[in-house]
Write a structure and sequence with these properties.
By secondary structure, the chain is mostly beta strands. The chain has one helix at about 1-20; strands spanning about 25, 60, 65, 70-75, 80, 90, 95, 100-105, 110-115, 120, 135-140, 145, 165, 180-185, 195, 200-205, 210, 215. The strands form five sheets. Strands 10-7-15-11-12 form a five-stranded antiparallel sheet, with no helix packed on it.
Length: about 220
């Protein structure tokens, strides 16, 4: 009899947990952090959810929206989309507002000060020094084209669109100032590019189902 009681208690606890599962709707274009997170009044950012809210929840991102942030530290969640448009995009690109920030460093070599947040929008763009730097690629969305390649030293900037950030390879030796400038080899002044970030788009997930999302711009 005691075993049956324990089984019934376990079933009741599971049903209670299922009944308490929360659903959150998030829209980067229509939402506002502080909203209740309903479909009619969605949140604006994924990061507005606490770790507790990201446990056992159903999280829906609005189709057609771009989220310049990452998803992490979720447990037993369903993360999907709502709406009829294209898949929502988890985007790690830091986007140049214009090409005016490029300055000639030497003949055929241009440099960009990546510590100036006013030059960018997108992923971590407003956080300044803490987040600039580790660039994985240069991308032109209008042409769906990745430019050049990253080289290990400034002296190796030999081919069109080769780019360089730092010659240090050990994490223990790196400082933020090592990532201050992006150098590029170009016969003419470069344009406004998307710069991929050296972080993960989705990480530290446990027991989650993730579907109907696109992830771009992370290195």
């Amino acid at each position: 009899m005691r075993r049956i009681s324990l089984v019934l208690l376990s079933l009741c606890s599971s049903m209670l947990l299922m009944a308490q599962t929360q659903t959150y709707y998030i829209s980067s274009t229509l939402g506002k952090d502080g909203n209740p997170g309903t479909e009619e009044a969605p949140l604006s950012t994924i990061s507005s959810l606490s770790k507790e809210q990201k446990t056992g929840a159903a999280i829906y991102l609005r189709s057609g929206d771009i989220f310049f942030e990452s998803i992490s530290d979720c447990t037993d969640c369903i993360i999907s989309s709502y709406g009829e448009e294209k898949k929502p995009v988890i985007c790690g690109f830091r986007v140049m507002r214009s090409g005016e920030g490029w300055q000639m460093d030497e003949q055929g070599i241009w440099k960009l000060d990546m510590s100036d947040p006013s030059q960018f929008y997108g992923y971590k763009a407003g956080y300044g020094k803490q987040f600039y730097g580790n660039i994985g690629c240069l991308y032109i969305p209008e042409e769906n084209r990745i430019l050049g390649q990253s080289v290990a030293t400034k002296k190796e900037l030999k081919n069109q669109y080769d780019f360089f950030v730092t010659d240090k390879v050990k994490r223990s030796e790196l400082t933020q100032d090592d990532f201050k400038y992006l150098y590029i080899k170009s016969d003419e002044k470069p344009g406004a590019y998307c710069l991929s970030s050296g972080t993960n788009g989705i990480s530290n997930m446990t027991g989650c189902t993730i579907e109907n999302l696109a992830v771009v711009g992370f290195g």
